[in-house]
Design a protein that fits this description.
Largest sheet: 9 strands, mixed
CATH superfamily of the largest domain: Vaccinia Virus protein VP39
Number of strands: 31
Number of domains: 4
Distance between the termini: 41 Å
Number of helices: 34
CATH architecture of the largest domain: 3-Layer(aba) Sandwich
Radius of gyration: 33 Å
CATH topology of the largest domain: Rossmann fold
Shape: globular
CATH class of the largest domain: Alpha Beta
Helix content: 25-40%
């Protein structure tokens, strides 16, 4: 790597300034080219900043921090597709930190909107907030946070320098501290941009941004854009073809949008030399030109996107030609803000995942877009972030293919059995491509033999090789046919991601190759119901209509080559252990032939984010089928649990599965059967519990888990939150510890070995809270919310909700509810409220240190279902004895270690171990009375704190409450007979 310091960089750049100044007339002439300016000045400028621009150290093409576009320009300014320089930071060679767009010095860049439009377009599409426009003579920092718009492009000029400023130490320091290699490694751009005011948004004719201040990420912008395009096209189709029903209209609109997107992708990648979309916009009949070209493109690329369907028929009247022309004009690469050459495929997957969550609904006269019923039931569409996809893929597929040759990998099969828009399969395919690239870089002598193409001195995968990887290794299933098509589209885009017209032509001098550019994925990515097998025809549960709707699928029949064992001969030419030794090519060892049996009989790995849908959202007929056919379909089960079981069943005997799901299976009583499956039949390798940090705007606690089907003695690698995950900070715990029927097989990921011993001692007290209390929820208001009032009325009773209580205190907030003794739908057992009782908050934020919040109610309040009510059974104890235990650090420790739910469930409270005192024994009586007295003092102190006004009184009451908290904890520690070391373990939960 280039080593530099500020002083060294300043001296080197100063010499470049002197060189430019001494020959300025030559460098500013029109004859002095951009290529010369890059070689003489710009390359050396960024080398001085610590970047390996000339690749003196980073030889491996796929692991270079500076990617440089060839200097010759084949297209005019309006259709240029790639930035001159893209700067990355190892080991992440996928996410660009900033771009540099270079010009020759004779071009005046300061006031040319096209230059700024280009630069902003590069940055915005790749998620880079700032980039650089320079000819060395000028250096402009361009703000790329706003959607590109040629009319406002000059607003992107953020800060500019002349070449003479480079010799001013203060001004050069501004550049160095922002763009040097060292600065980028220290997150300089993020820190810099965080200090800037919000950017302005612009608005296009068909959406994609709003006029409000602030940035709109490209995925949100493009989703809004294609949502609006879909709406406009759907209405136009319905107007011209009034007999179209909702299903046909959805399919027609989806296919039209897909074709537009795919065509722009081909154009931006320079795979298609013609600007089709711009030509359609200018034609006399845009729709007819579109359909005609789609037929020709279909012959060329042979993919599902352009496959003939009813919109291609002469009797289908397309969108109004003026309307469709306007859509094409705005989507044209000449004016569109979107650059699909820079648009990450996973971002497109994110957009399509949400796009697929809606359908076009047509009535006789109207058209509108609405969420699919299953999406509404599930609470939305949850697109998996790329870092989760990458981790799961690396620790499943990555572990399985490590050290293997392409020939061995070609016999392996990887699937997502609920693939949606294909985000996980894109991740799988990308990982496989990168692995093959690195393999052939290392074993260059194999590259040509296996069909690689030499491009500018580097061996690259041919399209034929990429096709084979896709066809041999990647499989998917989804119940939604539109999702299947989009997955195929996404995989096609991924396959063509690094291709150009030149590289596709280099396949052979044979033009017939074009007919096979896109492989037929109809046997790899299929539409079907992964959870329902074809055996439904042998049951009486489903009629013919139900069978068609359910769309059952048999894995063995659908993927026959996946479920066959086969013996294959390989040429082994390098030891597995050498694979990670270095990144440089190695001399091949003599090849040896060997024979091996591929472990088929199922998939080698299954990855994904299966649907989350509880029994409330599943039809009764399907529920009956699941209960009959799935071991895990017990209690209030969820579809994701069934997908785990189904995935397990279609793995081969040594296969791996990696999912992101709700974390409810870890301890929720309804997932006991799923836990037993995981603990008794699999080798759990990773559990990463993220809580609510993964899915934006979703109140959903999730975790990642990975297992292999081969059962053996095993340590589970456990990440407790996202910070641990990113820092690769984890602890390990033996899987056998959780294989405990007495503990309901709960997977307690917050435990370590010290916790196990401490909890064992706490739970050695055989008496549980359930022996002393009933713990129902309060009133389920539902449709009876009209019976609530903020002012007292006749026959109205005081009502508490969860937020009205804190530890040892009640804050009644003037909420009343009408009580009618005969209204059994609301008040089933009013008598339970009409007594002294303990109240416990039912929903607690997992990020809070305190899990249990309880108080005493002596005023016969009614309560909503946001509270649990501790109704005492007959016993000799004072209620305050139990209140002190519930609010203690001991119970807080138990809940933090054993339960991951936000809801405080009755079965969890039931299991709290309670010291069973014999009050006829003086020691026990004293312990009981001491705790009761302390709790009484705390209740009084909390009341005093509530009424305190003066600062000194508030401070005094707070100190008194803190002291009493410590004393109550000490009294409870004594009850459980904890040692000093055990107390430290308990209190460590609050550190």
């Amino acid at each position: 790597m280039i080593e530099t310091t500020f002083d060294k960089a300043f001296d080197e750049v100063s010499k470049l300034v002197d060189k430019f100044e001494n020959n300025k007339q030559t460098y500013m002439s029109a004859n002095y080219s951009e290529a010369e300016a890059r070689q003489d000045f710009i390359d050396k400028f960024f080398t001085a900043l610590g970047w390996d621009v000339s690749h003196l150290y980073q030889h491996e093409p796929h692991r270079q921090e500076v990617k440089i576009e060839k200097s010759h320009k084949q297209h005019n300014e309006a259709t240029r597709k790639r930035a001159d320089y893209a700067f990355y930071l190892a080991p992440n060679f996928k996410d660009v930190h900033f771009f540099v767009e270079a010009k020759k010095p004779s071009v005046l860049i300061q006031n040319n909107p096209q230059h700024y439009f280009q630069t902003i377009k590069y940055g915005w599409n790749a998620g880079c907030p700032i980039s650089i426009l320079t000819d060395f003579e000028e250096f402009v920092i361009v703000d790329c946070r706003s959607q590109p718009n040629i009319n406002y492009a000059l607003n992107g000029k953020h800060k500019s320098y002349r070449y003479t400023d480079y010799k001013n130490k203060d001004k050069f320091a501004e550049i160095f501290n922002l763009f040097s290699h060292e600065a980028i490694a220290n997150k300089s751009i993020k820190n810099y941009v965080d200090s800037l005011p919000k950017a302005k948004r612009t608005k296009s004719k068909f959406g994609g941004a709003t006029s409000n201040a602030g940035e709109m990420p490209i995925d949100e912008s493009f989703l809004e854009y294609i949502d609006n395009i879909r709406n406009v096209i759907a209405k136009a189709f319905k107007k011209a073809n009034p007999d179209l029903d909702s299903a046909a209209l959805t399919e027609a609109t989806q296919r039209t949008v897909d074709r537009l997107v795919f065509t722009r992708f081909l154009e931006d990648k320079l795979i298609e030399p013609v600007n089709h979309i711009n030509d359609w916009a200018k034609s006399n009949n845009a729709w007819k030109a579109f359909i005609t070209d789609c037929a020709a493109i279909n012959v060329k690329y042979n993919g599902v996107v352009f496959k003939e369907m009813f919109i291609d028929k002469p009797n289908f009247l397309g969108a109004d030609t003026k309307l469709f022309s306007d859509i094409c004009a705005e989507l044209s690469s000449y004016t569109s803000p979107y650059d699909f050459n820079l648009f990450p495929i996973h971002i497109l997957g994110s957009i399509y995942e949400r796009f697929l969550g809606k359908v076009v609904v047509a009535t006789a006269k109207q058209v509108h877009i609405e969420e699919k019923p299953e999406v509404r039931k599930a609470g939305g569409v949850y697109y998996t972030p790329k870092y989760i996809v990458d981790y799961i893929v690396e620790h499943t597929i990555g572990k399985l293919i490590h050290g293997k040759t392409p020939a061995e990998i070609s016999q392996m099969h990887f699937a997502d059995i609920a693939c949606g828009s294909g985000s996980f399969l894109i991740g799988v395919y990308d990982y496989l491509i990168q692995y093959h690239k690195e393999f052939y870089y290392k074993y260059a002598n194999r590259a040509q033999k296996d069909g690689c193409i030499n491009m500018d001195g580097t061996w690259v995968l041919s399209i034929h090789q990429k096709q084979n990887i896709l066809l041999n290794n990647v499989f998917g299933v989804d119940i939604d046919n539109q999702a299947v098509e989009v997955t195929q589209l996404s995989l096609f885009l991924k396959m063509l991601e690094d291709e150009t017209l030149t590289s596709t032509m280099a396949q052979g001098k044979q033009t017939s190759l074009y007919a096979k550019v896109l492989p037929d994925l109809s046997k790899n990515i299929v539409c079907g119901n992964s959870l329902v097998d074809m055996d439904i025809s042998n049951t009486t549960l489903f009629d013919v209509y139900d069978e068609r709707k359910i769309n059952a699928l048999n894995f063995e029949a659908t993927f026959p080559k996946v479920f066959k064992n086969k013996t294959v001969k390989y040429l082994k030419f390098a030891p597995d252990s050498s694979w990670d030794d270095n990144l440089e090519p190695i001399v091949e060892e003599p090849m040896q032939e060997y024979e091996t049996t591929i472990s088929s009989g199922g998939f080698d790995a299954i990855v994904g984010n299966p649907p989350y849908l509880s029994t409330k959202g599943i039809s009764e007929i399907e529920k009956k089928y699941f209960v009959k056919n799935y071991l895990t379909a017990t209690g209030q089960f969820d579809l994701y649990g069934l997908f785990v079981e189904r995935g397990f069943s279609v793995l081969n005997k040594i296969g791996k599965l990696g999912f992101i799901t709700s974390n409810t299976f870890l301890s929720n009583k309804d997932f006991l059967s799923l836990r037993k499956l995981l603990l008794k039949k699999t080798n759990l390798q990773v559990i990463a519990n993220f809580g609510e940090t993964v899915f934006k705007d979703a109140n959903l606690d999730v975790c990642v888990f990975i297992f292999e089907k081969e059962k053996k003695e095993n340590e589970i690698k456990i990440f407790k939150n996202d910070k641990d995950f990113f820092a690769n900070k984890f602890h390990s715990i033996n899987q056998n510890i959780f294989d405990n029927e007495l503990e309901n097989f709960e997977i307690l990921i917050n435990l370590n070995n010290k916790d196990l011993k401490c909890l064992a001692k706490l739970f050695s007290h055989q008496t549980n809270l359930s022996n002393f209390f009933l713990l129902p929820r309060g009133i389920e208001l539902g449709s009876n919310s009209d019976k609530i009032s903020k002012v007292p009325k006749t026959d109205f009773s005081k009502l508490l909700v969860g937020k009205n209580i804190k530890k040892y205190e009640t804050n009644f907030n003037n909420l009343y509810i009408k009580f009618e003794k005969n209204d059994k739908s609301v008040f089933k057992e009013f008598s339970i409220y009409n007594q002294e009782k303990i109240l416990i908050q039912r929903i607690r934020n997992l990020s809070l240190a305190t899990r249990i919040v309880a108080t005493l109610d002596t005023e016969n309040h009614l309560c909503t279902n946001t509270l649990r009510i501790g109704i005492p059974k007959e016993n000799n104890y004072n209620l305050k004895y139990f209140l002190g235990i519930l609010n203690s650090s001991v119970v807080n420790y138990i809940f933090t270690k054993k339960f991951l739910n936000k809801d405080i469930y009755a079965y969890q409270l039931d299991r709290i171990p309670i010291p069973n005192l014999n009050l006829t024994i003086s020691k026990h009586k004293k312990q009981h009375d001491t705790l009761v007295t302390l709790v009484e003092q705390m209740l009084v102190a909390k009341q005093q704190l509530q009424t305190a006004v003066l600062k000194k009184d508030i401070s005094f009451c707070e100190k008194k409450c803190n002291t009493l908290t410590s004393k109550i904890d000490a009294a409870v520690y004594e009850l459980y007979d904890l040692t000093a070391d055990e107390i430290n373990i308990v209190e460590g939960i609050n550190i």
